[in-house]
Design goal:
Blueprint: E1 15-23, H1 36-44, E2 48-57, H2 68-81, E3 85-88, H3 94-104, E4 107-109, H4 111-122, H5 126-140, H6 144-147, H7 149-152, H8 164-200, E5 206-211, H9 217-225, E6 242-248, E7 252-258, H10 268-273, H11 279-282, E8 286-292, H12 298-312, E9 319-324, H13 333-341, E10 346-347, H14 356-368, E11 371-379, H15 383-392, E12 393-401, E13 404-412, E14 425-430, H16 438-446
Parallel strand pairs: 1-2, 1-3, 3-4, 5-7, 5-8, 8-9, 9-10
Antiparallel strand pairs: 6-7, 11-13, 11-14, 12-13
Helix pairs in contact: 1-4, 4-5, 5-8
């Protein structure tokens, strides 16, 4: 049987049959459609879905994932529907991909390849393009042999030792290795630059939005900050981290960052490549985990996000769960179950603004847990002091007495050292450790 022609993935406007192997011990509900998310992914990539086939197995077939009978059934289905490719919801090993292309006589695409293709089409910034290219090369590196099987059949002449396919394969491997090294070097430089940017923002407390793709993070950011971050009802609408100033009522200004959305079985290489993009989340004082509460698999999506954060080394101990899209709920029982499990969760609608007052209060309370309550005496004409406290602290009371002004405020411990810039008298009103002085806190923060 002839090998299907395969140079590189170009799935747009092609007909596809979706396929999946669901293991018996899978956590998926019996009522769930195992291919619902994959269908959304491939349609996002511009593919026309014409059919699907699912097999339940105790364990995957080592050579072809599916059993022999199901592979033949899949071949006949794809042929009868005129499908140009078969897309698997599973991640295939290089050998499984080769064997399936040989058996089905059509192009085989797995879940990772679909996600990489979408990311490649959405990458706009220099950093995102580097990250996606690196992830693609790391994915295709062990699969190069699959791309050159049409040349492997050509044998070399006497004394040649190797055919042109093998020679070309070795050349490609060297080129790929060289490009991977170059991309890693460039990304390392970009990561250092991003690290400096994050450090320069240390004067502001930072809050990062994380969550499953299409949970409404960008819409929420636009609603909270008045920004014009691109938001659409589609998977992976946002790839790059965007940071905007958020004037939090009764608190002051903080920086709010929108990050790339996650998805289950996210390719490992892609997670590693986008590590620097999530630098904002790693150093944020608070994570807002945005969840599409109207989605029937909301709990599984929460678990996926937590798992990816763990893989990235991002602590999610200081996290506030935000149950979004409450306006789109047909069944309130889903959010009721989530609220029982996550007692401190906040229910909102980014589209209508419902629940924003509760969100403001919860965020201010969480940020305030790392703050110190102070009484600061300064000169009434010190505009710089006024501006600093208005922007970086929660002012609870202001008292004027001739040329002196007294502020009662809550200020983040990490900003205490900034008070050295002003000619002020400082008294700490409340402390978890009464024996500690403000001067100790300032010197510690400066270090």
């Amino acid at each position: 049987m002839a090998e299907p022609k395969r140079e590189k993935l170009k799935v747009k406007n092609q007909k596809a049959v979706l396929a999946a192997v669901v293991l018996e011990d899978s956590e998926q509900s019996k009522d769930e459609d195992p291919l619902e998310e994959l269908r959304g992914l491939v349609e996002t990539g511009g593919v026309q879905v014409v059919g699907q086939l699912i097999q339940k197995r105790r364990m995957p077939h080592p050579a072809t994932l599916m059993g022999k009978g199901k592979v033949e059934e899949l071949r006949m289905l794809a042929e009868s529907l005129g499908a140009e490719l078969v897309v698997f919801d599973n991640n295939l090993s290089p050998s499984q991909g080769r064997n399936l292309e040989r058996e089905l006589d059509t192009v085989i695409v797995d879940r990772s390849e679909v996600i990489l293709d979408i990311f490649a089409s959405r990458a706009r910034t220099y950093e995102a393009k580097l990250q996606v290219e690196l992830a693609q090369l790391l994915y295709f590196q062990p699969r190069l042999k699959r791309l050159w099987t049409h040349l492997e059949r050509i044998e070399g002449g006497v004394g040649a030792g190797r055919g042109p396919g093998e020679k070309q394969l070795e050349t490609d491997k060297r080129l790929v290795d060289k490009r991977i090294t170059e991309l890693r070097r460039k990304l390392s430089s970009v990561e250092k630059h991003r690290g400096r940017m994050v450090h320069q923002r240390s004067d502001h407390m930072t809050v990062s939005l994380v969550g499953y793709t299409n949970a409404g993070k960008s819409t929420l950011m636009n609603a909270l900050t008045g920004a014009e971050v691109y938001a659409a009802d589609q998977l992976f609408a946002t790839l790059d981290t965007r940071t905007r100033k958020w004037s939090l009522p009764s608190w002051g200004d903080v920086l709010l960052s929108d990050t790339v959305g996650f998805v289950r079985d996210l390719p490992h290489h892609l997670v590693a490549s986008f590590r620097s993009t999530l630098e904002e989340a790693r150093y944020a004082e608070l994570l807002l985990h945005v969840v599409d509460a109207s989605h029937p698999q909301a709990q599984q999506q929460i678990d996926t996000v937590n798992s990816v954060l763990d893989e990235l080394g991002v602590s999610h101990e200081n996290m506030l769960l935000v149950l979004n899209k409450c306006d789109a709920m047909d069944d309130r029982s889903i959010v009721d179950v989530l609220r029982v499990k996550f007692e401190n969760a906040i229910t909102v609608s980014a589209a209508t603004g419902e629940g924003f007052d509760r969100l403001y209060a919860a965020v201010a309370e969480r940020l305030g847990e790392g703050a110190v309550e102070l009484k600061i005496d300064g000169h009434v004409g010190d505009g710089r002091l006024h501006h600093f406290l208005n922007e970086h602290s929660e002012i609870t009371d202001t008292v004027y007495d001739n040329e002196q002004v007294t502020f009662h405020c809550r200020l983040s411990r990490q900003l205490l050292y900034r008070l050295d810039e002003f000619q002020v008298s400082i008294e700490r009103i409340e402390s978890d450790t009464p024996e500690a002085s403000v001067e100790t806190d300032i010197s510690t923060a400066a270090e």
